[in-house]
Amino acid sequence: MLQTADQANQTSSSGKTSKVNTNQATVYLKNEQGLLAPVSLNLPQGSKEGKLNQLMESLVQDGTYASVIPQGFQGVLPKGTQVTHVSVDKKQKLAVSGVHQAFQ
C-alpha cells in the first residue's frame, strides 16, 4: 500500500520550486458519490512506523492530512478519530490498527 519515497516539487509563494521529501501512498477515500476510490497522496517522510500511522490518519475526515486530500474526496473514518497504533504481521499478511473513539 505504501510506495517508495518520492521527491515532490513544491512551489513557494515567491515562485521558486524546491524538492521536498515525501512518501507517495495510495489510499481509498470516499468520493462525492459516496463510493470508495483509490487516491495517491504525497505524505511527509517519516519512520516505517510513522508511515503506517500517516496512512491511517489520512483516512480520518478533516484530520491531520486533510490539506493533501484532493477536492471532492473525504476520509472514511469519522472526524475526531485518533490512530493509537498500527502493526503488521508479515507472516499472516495482516495489519492491525488501534483507534481512540467509538464508532457509531
Tell me the Rg in angstroms.
15 Å
Low-confidence stretches: 1-18
- Helix/strand order: EEEHEE
**Strand content bin:** 35-45%
Mean pLDDT: 79
**Helical segment tally?**
1
Would you count the extended β strands for me? 5
Looking at this protein, list some descriptive labels.
three-stranded antiparallel β-sheet; 44% strand; disordered N terminus; 104 residues; 5 strands; mainly beta; 10% helix; two-stranded antiparallel ribbon
What's the gist of this structure?
By secondary structure, this protein is mainly beta. It contains one helix and five strands, in the order βββαββ. Strands 1-2-3 form a three-stranded antiparallel sheet, with helices on one face. A two-stranded antiparallel ribbon has the order 4-5.
Structural description of this entry:
- The protein has one helix at residues 48-57; strands spanning 2-11, 17-30, 36-44, 83-89, 94-99.
- Helices cover 10% and strands 44% of the residues.
- A three-stranded antiparallel sheet has the order 1-2-3, covered by helices on one side. It has a two-stranded antiparallel sheet with strand order 4-5.
- A hairpin with a 5-residue loop joins strand 1 and strand 2 (17-30).
- The chain starts with a strand and ends in a 5-residue tail after the last strand.
- Mean pLDDT is 79; it is low at 1-18.
- It is globular and about 35 Å long.
- By secondary structure, it is mainly β.
